[in-house]
User: Fold these one by one.
Assistant:
Number 1:
Amino acid sequence: MALAVLLLLCVWLPVSLQCSVSENQIGQVTRLLNIMVQSEKSSAASGSTPNPSILLALRLASYHDTATERVMLSRLQADAVKRVQEGLAFSSGTVALYCLGMQACCADPSLTSAPGLTGGKKTLDLAELLEKKLKEEIENIDSKNFPLTNYYQVSLDILALCMMGKPVTSHSVQRLIEASDNGGFSYGEKYSVDTASVAVLALTCVKHSIKAPDRMVLRLKILNALKCLIKNILQETTSDGLIGNLYSTGLAMQALSVTSTNYDCSRTIQTLLERAGSGSFENPMAASQITPSLENRNYLELNKLDCKDFEKTLDGSVLPLAPPTAPEGVITVHYRVEDGIHYSFNDSIEVTVPVGSSLLQVMEEAAKISPAKFRFTVEQSSWGPFVTSIQVLAGNTEERTYWQFLTGSNALDQGVGDYKPYDGEYIVAKFSTY
């Protein structure tokens, strides 16, 4: 009886129709695919870290650059071994993405070639490493009520293990469900559609894997959690069809697809293509988040891919955007840095930069004018430069602190390297908790 009541807490939704771009629109998708391919070629040439999210998007696409995908697989495998051998940073979510990327290429993450590995081993078992990483995340939740990283990465961990056919403990799944019920997917007042969407993918995979009668209670709990998550995701839909924000919409579409949820898919695709046409997805990581959904593909299909040569190949060219008007003149941006935790400083400046400048360029100009107040550091991430510190305050995962960027009271949905302020805009960098 209690379970019956539990299942009624959220309302399920009807089945959706096919949701993908038309034949006439496929050119915009191939353009984004070529952006990712060219980015990977540049990354390989410069020796930069490979991006597994790009490999996932390329593997799920209809058109392929098979040679580039093979090189990406080799680079992922080599980088994974290097990180383990040299003790480099390798968060649980990153391990999960590496496992998914390898699996998408029909390579077993448990048998990653690793000559020279300590202990005389010749292979690296990334699945075993991921199981260990997830165990550490769950232990931190048990003791401190939050994971070592975040619930987005915990969701990726569960998804990757499930996709590899590895057992995921009921306790781990239960902790993810509890987080979704108790505000664990929100950062301040903002609901994380990205986290909720990956959690939907993970829980759906686990639901499909449950066969044993003694786990049926868990399956019922998963079903109810999925209903609630989908309801929450849909509540974040904007009038133009975006779900959360421009860059969370792709993952949200995957979540809605695997749960056969009805929504105004054509409106969402129309907005995404309009924004792609205006250059919003020139960042390869951003492109990787929407191309699977534009072709109605999702991460749960990764272990069903055919790894033979593909009939449809990319021609290697990038279709041009509509010729942009050359920006002229300058703009003034009001920039403030604020310690929103300890309240140790609150400094403002007006910065003049050329039209079309990124927020990063605004920050650099402010730092030139007043280094003591506006100096900052960045590190490269899959999304581009990520601000790690301003003045003497640095984000810390253990203390769950970071630098949040806002325009007015709204958090930016692009990174500092991509966001282009407008004339007269007020930008705030606020040291915050999550």
Number 2:
Amino acid sequence: MTCRGNSMPRSSKKSYSFLGDIKQNEKAKLEKQLKKEKDPEQKTQIQFLITRMEQQEKALQEQMARKGKEQEIRKHERELIKQGKTPFFMKKSEKKKLFLAEKFQQLKKTGKVEKYLQKKLKKNASKDRRHLPKRHDKE
């Protein structure tokens, strides 16, 4: 393993691929436990764990999709270089724009664009409020 921030190189991902199955089993057990549980506090805690696991799965899938898309772009660029074209390497900002456009296309398909934009506006508004100088009332 390297110390460069890449916590899971390709070889260790393959070595620890069984962890996904364990997580799925654990999630199924939690869902069964949620159905049996009668205590409302325990129910909310179990529900929180389940939603967190689902969010982690979704984030991992998005990360894998992004890496796959980046590999596809690199492969295409290598083919163009072999054909004699000049190499072109995409900047981070261009990659970001490309992935953002892809995300909006996906949101359009599912019809969740409005909800996403509302959350984004709310988040930016809270950031703006944080950076404004605080008002002090003088008595």
Number 3:
Amino acid sequence: MPAPSSSYVNQNSYVNQYNPQTFISTANSMSQNYNAPVNSVRSNRSYEEDDSEFSDEDQPTNNTTTINTNGSFYANKEKSRTNTSISSAVSNPGSSATIKLKSKNSYGLDVFLLHGSVKKVLDGDKFSSIILNEQRQSIWKRVSPSYEIQILGYQSDKKYHGVKKFTSYEIQAKIFPQRVKRRYNHFDWLHDRLVEKYPNICIPPLPGKAVTGNFDDEFLSKRKSQLELWLNKMASHPVVGQSEVFVHFLQCDEGSSKWKAGKRKAEKDDYRGAQWFCTLTVPGESVDTTNAIKEKVDKFSRACSNLENCVKNVSTSLEKISAINSSVLRKEYVHLGKKLDDFGLALNNDSLEAPFNHELTDALITTGNTYTQIGNMFGEQPKTDINPLLDRFHLYKGIIQQMPEIVQLEKQSIQTYEEFQTKPEKLEGRSLMEIAPRREIISHVTFAEINQFNRDKVDDFNEYMKSFLQQQITFYTEITECLKRAHASFDKIPINKSSNFNSSFRR
């Protein structure tokens, strides 16, 4: 494959010196960019109305809800990343002439490879860069540190005179002073915009909608945790976390003119789908030879397939343990506690009177209460350790399931380029030397995303497992302390020295 044009910036070292003010100033600039004129051309629905109209009916989605055994809901979103069409008359940035595109989708791959940007790309539109690390691997350049997002709480309310009920979540990104309220459909809208804009970035699915019980406090608390997990995963990405639409989601008050204008601008973004590639700055050298790239993406695909199966298997085991803890173990330990209580009370009988009989009864009742407490602890413990870990495994299952689509776009771009080589009539008067740099952009993006995934999984699962094991240590330490107290209750009963019970028991 011909080498890319030298017009693409070659940056060979990974810059990791962050200044928090850099992100704030960038975010403020993004927010200003979103302050579009109120009289802009509208999309197919009006946003001049009150934002409370942003409801299920306003934003139809194609969600298949999956319910697993521990009550976790995740949507299987099958959404096209390039499903938006615009006028087929597009200006050629390198010429004052207007060309007619044969492709029906001006945000599609063919249009990008043949014609590049459908409009002139301004410096203010270039937010993302790819550089090479010390191993000469493509990676995203992080211009500011990642940041934490908290969902502080949730509140259910009604509209249309109580006809329709909804829940809003109070969100604060720690890098911004303001708090905003968002409903689930706002999250769904954001997810759609991210999937639509970034064809080669992994956007995991949102936790799905519940068929029933979606205003139950336990469900809302769980969804709050899942949405917070999703937001922080997005915020940690060097591109998504600093994107205009994501920052807009975190900053603008619902119902404000800026919020409505920002929604319109995001939905009419000229740089979505393959057109987003035009806004990137990439190194000036090829990722690798075509054959080497094919081999690498095939190996990555096979590794992801195996990883997905392993994640599913771990999730299944965790779900079973959670169910056992919440039902079987809880029930059986509480049952044992009740039977020990009964045993202690049965000993407290005049016909069975003996020295320290009352002390034995008290010790047995204490032990019974201990096992009742332990049973209840087992029932509640999954909320503290197993279920949070399950949520993280489900998140990663969604991430891994997106990888084949990212790899497929890379393969498709190579196939299209090879067709241009063998069938020059498809070039529409363009040269391969003109198309090659644009093909290379896709490879840089693909491998930057693959390398991002490979680095993140180490940090994420290290954090996930350490947190889970610490909760397990705390849990079993508390059980040990309960058992020690029960054991100590028998110390009030002196041991009969003449009894040979201890020695015979040991035998």
Number 4:
Amino acid sequence: MGDSLTAANGAKAVKPLDVLTQYRGISWCIGGDKSMEHVVTLPNILRKYNTDLRGFSLDEGPADTVSLSHLNVAVPGSIALDMPGQARELVKRLKMGVHGVDWQNDWKVITFFIGGNDLCKACIRRLADLHTLESFVSNITAALDVLHREVPRAFVNLVPSPDVTEERKLNKGLVCSVLHIYECPCGAYSRGEGTKTLKLLQMQYNDALRNLATSGRYDTKDDFTVVYQPFVQNMTTPTIMVDGVEEYDLDFLAPDCFHFSDKGHSVAAVALWNNMLATVEEKKTTVNVSDTVNCPDQSRPYFTTYLNNRAARVTRSVAAAAEAPPQDEHLERQTTDWLHKSLAFLAAQLPDREAEDDFFLEFASYGLLREEEVVAIRGCMDDAGLPMCSYLREVLPAQRGSAPELLLAAADEEGVEKAYPVWHVMLGVVVGAVIVCQSIAIAVLWKSGSKRRQDLLSHGESLSLLSGPGVKYV
């Protein structure tokens, strides 16, 4: 879904007029011409792992040539306003079974890339209302809502809007300078405050996209998620040295110095694939033309979502603790206390009662959660008016450490406790606490050594404690 950058306008162009041609078969995120050895695209990379891939676009032509465009519904010139319509068109094609797609059972990767044309025209007064932040967010939300409501088994890549002020540097020669007047006047010819305003709007667009993806709005089902892939966010034009002088490498661009060439599409495909495999913390916000296709990590052989990323982070912390040397008895008791607190917080943020029951059953059976703590945390979770801080104050003795009291004091000061359960605010701090005390957690994990506890530390079972797309398929 997107505009001319996804339709691949000019990707194989030799002369400026060829930029009007849509070379969809080599589009970075949906093209399927030839194979990865000849054309690097996301589908061709995926076909290394699944030869039965369906839906990729082929050859060239407009979006309405469905026999070739298949599930590539991108239309040149599109803006955010057009995205709900594209979402509905995509849903229609999926339900029709275009290119042999099984609507209900096939897993789908949807790449959503828009915003460049909004920014390119945002400075034109008569069009300004179409490109405000509010209008942009409203239309993107409406489109994602359609996908969330209608499409089962989907992983959505939400790609940020590019920095169109880069076009100022690419007014090279008469052809590019003239074409930029029509393609991206605000990006290519803004100056001073106008450039700053445009850059600010791009940052606001992308902040809104990231917040939308991480809000949890689209993580309410086990088979659908939206993940922000930020590699375009700070993307700049590649450079090369010519006779000792650094110049822009126009080989990555079409003859209009605006759209991607075939080399540009390959670089974007590699960047998207690598970001899909990377943890949230490792995702890149720019593109390196020398990057190569990463292979999936055997310890994490799946695309990263916000839910499985969080679960894997906790699992890595506990597993690292199991490899640490044993500690003394006092340290063991202290570690047990910290682990009890951490488990309590983690249980409270699980998505439903069934997941909570599984959580308690697992940890209670390993002796890591005492019966009175299970009862107390259950009471807090069942009573919406009783926040998690009550559990900490009333059940955990004061000698267990001052950290919870400090957290509670901070929550009270900010008034957080009155509005939300405190676990919602403290979850990040607790996960951090698990990591900080990983070097001493062996006192509780090492001494047990039972096979059941080792099973708990196994990657797949640990991740199964948290639900989310991709988790149960690890």
